[in-house]
Amino acid sequence: MTPEQLGEDPTVATLSGVQRHEWLAKLHANHLPVDEDVHDVPMYEVSLGGIMGINDSERWVTIGTPIWVSLSLFDRGTLVWRVRKKDTLDLKVLKNVWYGGARASAPEAHRLIEGKHPGVACCDGFNVLFPGTASPISTNLLRGNLDPSPSKNRTLYRLLYPPGRSLFEACSELELIRGMRAALRGHEFLCSQSILHRDIGVDNILLSCDDELREGAEGFLIDLELAIYTGPTIEYRTLAPIRLPTGRVLNDVQVKHLHWTTSVANRGAPVTGTLQFMAAELLASLDDSLRSTGRPVQYVPVEHQTHHDIESFIWVLLYSLIRRVIVTSRQNLSAEEETWMQSLKMEFKHYYGQRAPDGILAQRSNDRPWKVVVDYPPFFSDAIRELIGQLSDHLEYKRTNPLSHTAVLDVLDIAIRRLSQSE
Ligand SMILES: Nc1ncnc2c1ncn2[C@@H]1O[C@H](COP(=O)(O)OP(=O)(O)OP(=O)(O)O)[C@@H](O)[C@H]1O
Ligand SMILES: [Mg+2]
What we know:
The protein has helices at residues 17-29, 105-112, 139-142, 173-192, 280-291, 306-327, 335-352, 357-365, 368-375, 382-396, 405-421; strands at residues 12-14, 44-47, 59-69, 79-85, 91-100, 124-127, 154-161, 164-166, 195-196, 205-208, 219-221, 228-229, 233-238, 242-243, 249-250, 254-259. It is an alpha+beta fold. It has 3 domains: 1-162, no CATH class; 166-224 and 272-291 and 300-423, Transferase(Phosphotransferase), domain 1; 229-259, no CATH class. The strands form 5 sheets. It has a 7-stranded antiparallel beta sheet, with helices on one face. Strands 8-10-11 form a 3-stranded antiparallel beta sheet. A two-stranded antiparallel ribbon has the order 9-12. Magnesium ion binds at residues 203-204, 223. Magnesium ion is lined by residues 203-204, 223.
């Protein structure tokens, strides 16, 4: 078997000792950090394959070890690296992903977006090709199985994003809330184009790494793998020549057709997202589906809607506020603060260590996670405690008043004003 058939990616090469030395010298000469590379970690040069001079121009060098390795055995095999572009030295995040069937979900979702928004990460997606050819790298071709049926095939893609940081690494509460607001505005922008993200979780909202930040660009959304388009399907058709009453004949008339379809998503599960941050109604529906086997009444799943994603933003905010306190805690806490911290860590484990939908729902039902912020005054500012109080009110009345972008953005704005004044 060839190295490729054994799983070696022909578009990736390990830097030799000399190449590595030259690369590090180049970084050094350009005043870029070299200590970010752990010394005995291999460095890889990654290309997009294809024919030299046509599509083989992009080259990237990896930094350190991957920042994310997907744990799911039979899914997209996601691998995420920080990389620098070989010629320009631009820092990016590169996602290696194997898409099944004919769909490359995130690149497709990004293609649907009209215009740009700072709250949604720009994503360049590329098919990876066998070097020297125009054939995409796919499991079918690697295995010498030329069965063209797309259902069993997986195709390799590389997606490039701007680098971000976790919400809970924010240097201040203000930075965290600004990042959340930017991402929520990004979400509103997507919804205005009938694109629903459906996987709002702490890993999919990032803080910007840019040193000079514009207002509104402090955070962004990533990972549109589960996004769906809920608007009409747009189809352009060229009509046969038309004769007008005046006798004039019009050729090549293009018409735009809008079709509404209910089966917008073909992704299997109707409920998507990360359990810890999922809206209560979706968790309940999921719980129902888990218990429904053998029941005489058929289970009807709840449709994932905009207000569910907005609710997830609130759960992400609460989680990130608490985790930030734990992650960024100082070394020299007083004895009293240390006791508070140990107790906070226990509560955090308790609330976010639940794995099943019913366990997560039970933890939320008694208001305890909200009270964590209220009950630990040394760790959270007044502005944040007030914000949390307002958001929990919004959640309480969501049945009669479904959560809206405006309502949540308004309370975030107030908190940002208060936090800015006290800085
Ligand atoms: N631009 C970025 N900056 C920093 N970290 C990133 C960036 N993009 C992705 N990551 C990290 O990689 C993780 C995985 O990326 P992403 O969310 O796009 O993949 P995924 O589709 O959730 O993976 P899976 O296939 O396992 O479901 C993110 O949760 C985040 O921790
Ligand atoms: Mg993700």
